[in-house]
Q: What sequence folds into this?
């Protein structure tokens, strides 16, 4: 069964860091572009970062550029999102998804989704 599982969320203070993981089971991630998304309370889901299947290309939304870093370890079938200098507005449920083409990510072509991990940034 094809499955994506996110982990690494939690409660952190502003300015601190978290690293999220997106691990696949039932298929190999290295065939796919992967996108990270978040949904803040009362807001629409936002696509915040993407990485190509090779890891050679990345995308960041302006809201996270310079603070978040996406990476992948295909040997571990995992994509990571390193989040630094966290702000209260980064609070939300973070999900990962597979994409059919990097150039479409995060807006179109996202296929398989994880259930998400919650991140709360609060003092």
A:
């Amino acid at each position: 069964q094809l499955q994506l599982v996110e982990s690494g969320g939690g409660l952190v203070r502003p300015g601190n860091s978290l690293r999220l993981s997106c691990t696949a089971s039932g298929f190999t991630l290295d065939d796919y572009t992967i996108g990270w998304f978040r949904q803040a309370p009362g807001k629409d889901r936002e696509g915040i970062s993407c990485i190509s299947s090779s890891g050679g290309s990345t995308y960041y939304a302006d809201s996270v550029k310079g603070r978040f870093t996406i990476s992948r370890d295909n040997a571990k079938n995992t994509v990571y999102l390193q989040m630094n200098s966290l702000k209260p507005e980064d609070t939300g449920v973070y999900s990962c998804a597979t994409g059919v083409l990097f150039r479409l990510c995060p807006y179109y072509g996202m296929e398989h989704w994880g259930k998400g991990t919650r991140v709360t940034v609060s003092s």
About this structure: The CA atoms of residues 18 and 83 lie 5 Å apart.
